[in-house]
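User: Before I run my own analysis I want an independent prediction to cross-check against. Here's the chain; please return only the structure tokens and, at the end, one sentence I can use as a sanity check.
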Amino acid sequence: QVQLAESGGGLVQAGDSLRLSCAASGLTFSRRSAGWFRQVPGKEREFVAGISWSGGQIYYADSVKGRFTISRDNAKKMVYLQMNSLKPEDTAFYYCAAYRLVLASGPVSFLPLEYDSWGQGTQVTVSS
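Assistant: Structure tokens:
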């Protein structure tokens, strides 16, 4: 099992930037894909960005493509989400997650149910 802890959320204005960090513990994190998801009250958790365990595959939701960048540092057991040109519709609780399988091949999953380790989340609020 992997333990995750997000940080870096906050209140910003539209057009600003934020960098979310996800600190992981556990022996297998560096061999698991990781993803960032977000959720607003009353809506389902949605995929934002995902990165394979090697960093060789990266995927983004269409809504954030070109504005957000996911990266990871396996030596430090960290995953990051750089968010630029933030919009009010980016307001949500952001979660870091680790994929349920080790050394998985194929595309990074978009489905929350495919991830079995989650952080407690961090709030991002973008004012207009």
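Sanity check: The chain has a mean pLDDT of 96.
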